[in-house]
């Protein structure tokens, strides 16, 4: 029941928000988002750290076809559900400084999106998964296409078609697997696992390709990423936060939930290619980020690089790699939402995100500087911040897979420092420019977002075991399925 | 809560008070809180040192990262090595905190400065107290962060910001090596705890020259190169002088940069079994010592000279490590902490008096105006030049004696380095304190001895620089080498080959190097005091001098080799690969669909009859197709 | 009094087939060549009825009532279709004052 209410609450909240016009809509949305967070926290608290799927619930959906509305939470889902419920209130709160047209629609869409995301992370039926996977795309499409920047139509169209294109391959693969299930067929994920066991290498290779394209586009991985920087730049910041903070985790989640257990032989055969692509992405994204002038685009490329590392860790298929990717998803969500918010704050005041026009902001904004530096440190994976735990485990995982690839992937800690420090220096330090003069420090609302996020950056860096312990049984079980 | 936990806790509390309360904590209090925090740590460390019974103690705080069988715990280890490091860090740290109260008194970022200093102490203490490599790594990166924050402390100046970034990034290059070393250790030993790793090595029957140990040690050494500014990762340290002078003294001379030496001494069991690595360490150390010393010969910025001197002295320490003279290197770490901190603080006092002027060409004759600074600086100069009986003499000669056993050529180079050291240090001393004043009238008018908060630390450090050598007074002079004896248990499991040095030979070696240093000091005296030579103005250097003054153009070389290509690559990726390769394909698919559709849609001409005709035709075709076997008979 | 199927069977099956085919072709030609919507409509009806005729004929010869039942269905559907179709034609006429399908090319391209 808890899982169902986690999905339903945002939908109901969204409908209510839609009905309310004017300023109160945002408050209502925020209250509901916090209620959802409370549910998420309750879920986290009542979760028993073992490998089972908990809070399960199953209704017939299309009875004759064996398709069920079936949801449940295991350790892997838990961390992502928690991330979703945690981030949305802050994303909503982060928009409080802006005056959007038809704001109630925006908040409703954010809440619908949340429902779909929770659905993706909890679905235990592959068709339900697919349903939510696509449903999540609709709100974000409208968010980006209505409230986005100048090029929004072209860019969101590309994004939409690109991801739909990828998902279709996944649909094909899912239908194929579904038809392999015995009897009147079943779309239950465990039945699919069972059915996939008998597949030979060549079939698995095709299925691997189909799933990989879908998830690689969603994350995105090199070279399927060209929609991403543009979309991140053009979408309104709340949309960018949703995309980078939560939505790209759908792809990563898909790798863990589908590719690894369904096509183990395919991964044996093609995992190396996937890792190479991921590592190319890390270096490629980082190197591009070094020269970016637009702060949002810079963070977009950095996010692209970080996702590459997560994927490399997953395909190295060891406990460290997968655990690292899970903890890194949480960490990356927090950091990237925080960083995008800081860009938003700067843009609100200076009306620009161009690094060449900014500078010297720190002189009037001690608070902003502190939060910016903490989030930046999380992003460059300094020990005792959340980013370090993830990157340490991921790099360890990749290193175990292949020392040389691990070493190359490790360049991320150098390049990450290069572009992040450059961004901080160009925007915050130096002499004030024309547009950064009289820059005001954070308002209460802004602090209300940045303080909890920064707190989490450090808290998660000091006590990562809280989450690692929850996910470990599920991950161990997953690995035992593979082997 | 044990005293051990309290040691890093005090600076952390100090950091939190000053950091969170920045702009709220009154200026008078901020410095005192920080200094008190540092002193409290020192007091704890001293208490522990006095009550130390020779047995390593491990304090387990909590499990930090647990994945499968790998458990990385947050725990501290107290043994001979960490105790000595603690004493140096907190002791010198406290003095520098006190000094900073005076030095930074006019700065608006006063509270922030002390917050950062305390944070640095916290991370430095973690670095030396951690009981495993990952906790060391926390401290390792943490001090890098503080170094970054403090170098770029005056953040309005973007050159300082660049120096700070350079420091952080070069350190990160080393950190990657360290991190990979840690991974290799985990893969091989299944743990990162010193005690477990070392006991596995001791029991595992590893032979000298083991491949795994070679890789581990070389990767760890890459980390050390970054942090301790060795070739090829040394160029950040001279630039790091952009930070406030107390920072240079604390971080870039006395404590942080010696982390690499600490790490190798900590891992001495592995290094002793990896002779190839040791050779590399020794030669890199020697090369760094000579290169940096030679650059130091012609620098005119008082802090740059000291910076190159630091790099050079660190080179000596690594050379000592390379010949397995671990305790001698550590001895040099200690004495160096005293006299180099003193030199920097003295330089700070001079800069303070000169209204932020750092060019020694504009100084001269300061000994009358700044008597305390002069005398303490003189003591430090004698100490670093290796002239007995001051601290540097003992530690440096101990290293050189061990080097002589190992390789005579290396020893000769080492003596050459100490000749250069003596020359540039006395050159600095003479140009600053002797002769006539060469600055502006305004500066002359402003000249004054520094306040007591600054001179007191100078005096204490001067005493330590003078007598520091007696902490490890060698046997040949009837001493007990008490430091070496104290550190002995650290090397018990290590396969060190001891070659007894002939006493008369050792004395000969000492005499050679002392005479060389004295001669070189004499030459400096002749050039800069008797002949009153002043280095030429900017841009007028010629020949070799110009090359050396410009640091052999190493920075420019790195710029051409790494920075520019990466920038170009970045633009190439963004503008060519991104747009002309990947996006061309992606957009190409879209364009293809568009083109096809514009052709195909012409079929929809809107005439109903046409549609029906097409329909009938198609039906007929399908009919024919399905009846083909019948029709064809 | 003869049974209807018997009456039907008095004419050879071939004649029905040829007659239906002829009717169907007339219908097709009507649809293809005429531009008046109502005539097209009638032609379509003609095609439908030719099929109906064939169904009835075969049903009688095979002594299987299913074919004739189908005819009733087709007639019912055709009636409904005519109602809708004529309504559309009326609407078209009201809008453009003509029922020439050649002019209805708004959906072009």
UniProtKB/TrEMBL annotation, chain A:
**Bilayer disposition of the protein:** Multi-pass membrane protein
User: Keywords, A to Z?
Assistant: Membrane, Transmembrane, Transmembrane helix
- Please state where this protein is localized: Endomembrane system; Membrane
Q: Which GO terms describe its cellular component?
A: endomembrane system; membrane
Q: Name one GO biological process term.
A: ATP synthesis coupled electron transport
**One Pfam family name from the record?**
Proton_antipo_M
Query: Signal peptide: which range, if any?
Result: none
Residue ranges annotated for the NADH:quinone oxidoreductase/Mrp antiporter transmembrane domain, each copy included:
123-412
The entry lists its GO molecular-function terms as: NADH dehydrogenase (ubiquinone) activity; NADH dehydrogenase activity; ubiquinone binding
Which positions, given as ranges, span the membrane? 76-96, 103-121, 127-147, 159-179, 206-227, 239-260, 272-291, 298-315, 327-347, 368-389, 401-421, 448-468
Q: Which family does it belong to?
A: Belongs to the complex I subunit 4 family.
Q: How is this protein named in the record?
A: NADH-quinone oxidoreductase subunit M
From TrEMBL, chain B:
Q: Where does this one sit in the cell? A: Endomembrane system; Membrane
Q: Which GO terms describe its cellular component?
A: endomembrane system; membrane
Q: Residue ranges of the NADH:quinone oxidoreductase/Mrp antiporter transmembrane domain? A: 132-421
Molecular function per GO: NADH dehydrogenase (ubiquinone) activity; NADH dehydrogenase activity
Q: Entry's InterPro entries?
A: NADHpl_OxRdtase_5_subgr, ND/Mrp_TM, NU5C-like, Proton_antipo_N
From which domain of life does this come? Answer: Bacteria
Keyword set, alphabetical order? Membrane, Transmembrane, Transmembrane helix
Describe the location of the NADH-Ubiquinone oxidoreductase (complex I) chain 5 N-terminal domain by residue ranges: 64-114
User: Which Gene Ontology BP annotations are present?
Assistant: ATP synthesis coupled electron transport; electron transport coupled proton transport
Instruction: Report the transmembrane regions from the record.
Output: 29-51, 82-101, 113-131, 137-155, 176-192, 212-237, 249-274, 280-298, 305-327, 333-351, 372-391, 411-431, 452-473, 507-528, 608-627
Membrane topology summary: Multi-pass membrane protein
The record's annotation in Gene3D superfamilies points to: 1.20.5.2700
Report the protein name in the record.
Answer: NADH-quinone oxidoreductase subunit L
What is the organism of origin for this protein? Arcicella rosea
UniProtKB/TrEMBL annotation, chain C:
The UniProt similarity line reads:
Belongs to the complex I subunit 4L family.
Keywords for this protein: Cell membrane, Membrane, NAD, Quinone, Translocase, Transmembrane, Transmembrane helix, Transport
Recall the taxonomic lineage recorded for the source organism.
Bacteria, Pseudomonadati, Bacteroidota, Cytophagia, Cytophagales
Substrates-to-products reaction catalysed: a quinone + NADH + 5 H(+)(in) = a quinol + NAD(+) + 4 H(+)(out)
CC terms in the record's Gene Ontology section:
NADH dehydrogenase complex; plasma membrane
**Where is it located?**
Cell membrane; Membrane
Q: Which residues cross the membrane?
A: 15-32, 39-58, 70-93
Q: Which PANTHER family match?
A: NADH DEHYDROGENASE SUBUNIT 4L-RELATED, NADH-UBIQUINONE OXIDOREDUCTASE SUBUNIT ND4L
SUBUNIT field = NDH-1 is composed of 14 different subunits. Subunits NuoA, H, J, K, L, M, N constitute the membrane sector of the complex.
Any Pfam family matching the protein: Oxidored_q2
State the name under which the record lists this protein: NADH-quinone oxidoreductase subunit K
**EC main group:** translocase
């Amino acid at each position: 029941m808890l899982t169902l209410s986690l999905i339903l609450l945002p939908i109901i909240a969204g409908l209510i928000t839609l009905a309310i016009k004017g300023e109160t809509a945002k408050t209502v949305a925020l209250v509901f988002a916090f209620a959802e967070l409370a549910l998420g926290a309750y879920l986290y608290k009542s979760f028993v750290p073992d490998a089972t799927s908990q809070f399960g619930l199953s209704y017939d959906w299309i009875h004759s076809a064996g398709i069920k509305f079936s949801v449940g939470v295991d350790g892997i889902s838990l961390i992502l559900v928690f991330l979703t419920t945690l981030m949305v209130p802050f994303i909503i709160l982060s928009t409080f400084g802006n005056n959007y047209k038809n704001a109630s629609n925006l908040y409703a869409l954010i809440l619908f999106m949340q429902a779909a995301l929770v659905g993706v992370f909890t679905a235990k039926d592959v068709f339900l998964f697919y349903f939510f996977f696509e449903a999540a795309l609709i709100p974000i499409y409208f968010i980006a296409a209505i409230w986005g920047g100048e090029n929004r139509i072209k860019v969101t169209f590309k994004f939409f078609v690109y991801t739909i294109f990828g998902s279709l391959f996944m649909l094909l693969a899912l239908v194929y697997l579904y038809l392999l299930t015995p009897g009147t067929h079943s779309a239950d994920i465990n039945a699919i696992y069972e059915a996939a066991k008998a597949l030979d290498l060549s079939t698995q290779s095709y299925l691997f390709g189909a799933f990989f394209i879908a998830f690689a586009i969603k994350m995105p991985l090199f070279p399927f990423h060209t929609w991403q920087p543009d979309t991140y730049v053009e979408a309104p910041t709340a949309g960018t936060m949703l995309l980078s903070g939560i939505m790209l985790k759908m792809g990563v989640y898909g790798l863990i939930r589908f590719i690894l257990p369904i096509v183990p032989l395919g991964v044996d055969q093609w995992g190396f290619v996937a890792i190479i692509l991921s590592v190319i992405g890390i270096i490629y994204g980082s190197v591009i980020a070094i020269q970016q002038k637009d702060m949002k685009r810079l963070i977009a490329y950095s996010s692209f690089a970080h996702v590459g590392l997560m994927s490399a860790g997953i395909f190295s298929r060891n406990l460290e790699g997968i655990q690292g990717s899970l903890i890194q998803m949480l960490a990356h969500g927090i950091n990237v939402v925080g960083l995008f918010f800081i860009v938003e704050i700067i843009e609100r005041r200076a009306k620009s995100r161009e690094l060449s026009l900014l500078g010297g902001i720190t002189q009037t904004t001690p608070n902003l500087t502190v939060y910016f530096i903490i989030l930046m440190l999380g992003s460059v994976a300094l020990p005792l911040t959340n980013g370090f735990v993830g990157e340490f485990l991921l790099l360890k995982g990749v290193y175990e897979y292949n020392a040389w690839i691990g070493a190359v992937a490790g360049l991320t800690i150098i390049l990450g420092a290069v572009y992040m420090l450059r961004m901080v220096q160009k925007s915050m330090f130096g002499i004030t420019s024309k547009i950064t003069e009289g820059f005001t420090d954070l308002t209460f609302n802004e602090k209300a977002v940045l303080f909890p996020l920064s707190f989490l950056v450090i808290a998660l860096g000091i006590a990562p075991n809280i989450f690692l312990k929850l996910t470990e049984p599920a991950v161990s079980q997953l690995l035992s399925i593979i082997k | 809560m044990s005293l051990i936990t309290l040691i890093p806790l005090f600076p952390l509390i100090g950091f939190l008070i000053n950091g969170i309360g920045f702009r709220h904590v009154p200026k008078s209090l901020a410095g005192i809180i920080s200094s008190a925090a540092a002193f409290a740590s020192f007091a704890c460390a001293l208490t522990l040192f006095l009550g130390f019974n020779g047995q390593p103690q491990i304090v387990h705080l909590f499990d930090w990262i647990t994945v499968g069988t790998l458990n990385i715990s947050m725990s501290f280890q107290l043994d001979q090595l960490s105790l000595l490091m603690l004493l140096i860090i907190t002791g010198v740290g406290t003095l520098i905190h006190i000094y900073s109260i005076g030095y930074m008194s006019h700065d608006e970022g006063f509270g922030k400065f002390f917050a950062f200093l305390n944070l640095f102490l916290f991370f430095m203490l973690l670095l030396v107290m951690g009981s495993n490599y990952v906790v060391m790594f926390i401290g390792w990166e943490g001090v890098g962060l503080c170094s970054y924050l403090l170098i770029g402390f005056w953040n309005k100046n973007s050159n300082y910001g660049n120096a700070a970034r350079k420091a952080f990034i070069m350190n990160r290059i080393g950190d990657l090596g360290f991190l990979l070393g840690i991974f290799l250790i985990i893969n091989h030993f299944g743990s990162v705890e010193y005690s477990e790793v070392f006991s596995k090595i001791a029991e595992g029957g590893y032979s000298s020259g083991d491949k795994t140990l070679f890789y581990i040690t070389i990767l760890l050494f890459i980390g050390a190169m970054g942090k301790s500014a060795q070739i090829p990762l040394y160029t950040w340290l001279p630039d790091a002088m952009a930070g406030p002078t107390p920072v240079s003294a604390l971080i870039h001379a006395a404590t942080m940069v010696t982390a690499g030496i600490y790490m190798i001494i900590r891992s001495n069991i592995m290094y002793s079994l990896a002779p190839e690595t040791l050779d590399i360490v020794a030669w890199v150390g020697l090369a760094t010592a000579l290169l940096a010393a030679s650059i130091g010969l012609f620098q005119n910025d008082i802090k740059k000279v000291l910076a190159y001197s630091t790099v050079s002295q660190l080179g000596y320490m690594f050379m000592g490590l390379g010949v397995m003279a671990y305790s001698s290197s550590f001895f040099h770490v200690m004495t160096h902490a005293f006299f180099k901190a003193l030199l920097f603080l003295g330089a700070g006092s001079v800069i303070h008096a000169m209204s932020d002027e750092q060019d020694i060409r504009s100084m001269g004759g300061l000994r009358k105006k700044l008597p305390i600074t002069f005398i303490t600086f003189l003591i430090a100069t004698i100490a670093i030049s290796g002239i007995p009986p001051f601290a540097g003499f003992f530690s440096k000669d101990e290293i050189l004696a061990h080097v002589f056993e190992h390789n005579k050529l290396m020893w000769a180079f080492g003596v050459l380095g100490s000749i250069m050291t003596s020359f540039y240090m006395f050159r600095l001393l003479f140009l600053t304190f002797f002769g006539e004043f060469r600055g502006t009238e305004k500066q002359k008018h402003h000249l004054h001895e520094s306040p007591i908060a600054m001179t007191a630390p100078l005096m204490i450090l001067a005493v330590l620089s003078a007598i520091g050598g007696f902490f490890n007074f060698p046997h040949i002079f009837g001493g007990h080498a008490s430091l070496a004896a104290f550190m002995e248990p650290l090397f018990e499991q290590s396969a060190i080959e001891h070659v007894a040095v002939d006493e008369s030979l050792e004395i000969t070696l000492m005499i050679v190097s002392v005479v060389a240093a004295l001669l070189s000091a004499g030459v400096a005296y002749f050039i800069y005091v008797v002949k009153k030579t002043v280095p030429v103005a900017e841009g007028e250097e010629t020949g070799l001098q110009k090359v050396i003054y410009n640091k052999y153009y190493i920075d420019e070389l790195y710029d051409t080799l790494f920075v520019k290509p990466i920038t170009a690559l970045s633009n190439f990726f963004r503008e060519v690969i991104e747009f002309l390769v990947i996006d061309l394909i992606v957009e190409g698919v879209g364009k293809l669909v568009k083109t096809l559709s514009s052709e195909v849609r012409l079929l929809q001409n809107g005439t109903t009859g046409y549609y029906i005709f097409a329909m009938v035709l198609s039906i007929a075709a399908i009919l024919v197709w399905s009846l083909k076997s019948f029709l064809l008979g | 009094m003869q049974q209807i199927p018997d009456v039907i069977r008095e004419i050879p099956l071939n004649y029905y087939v040829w007659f239906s085919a002829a009717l169907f072709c007339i219908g097709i030609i009507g649809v293809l060549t005429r531009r008046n919507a109502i005539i097209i409509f009638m032609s379509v009806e003609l095609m439908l009825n030719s099929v109906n005729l064939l169904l009835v004929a075969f049903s009688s010869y095979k002594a299987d009532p299913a074919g004739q039942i189908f005819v009733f269905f087709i007639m019912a559907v055709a009636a409904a279709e005519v109602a809708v179709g004529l309504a559309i034609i009326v609407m078209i006429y009201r809008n453009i004052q003509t029922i020439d399908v050649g002019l209805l090319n708004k959906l072009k391209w």
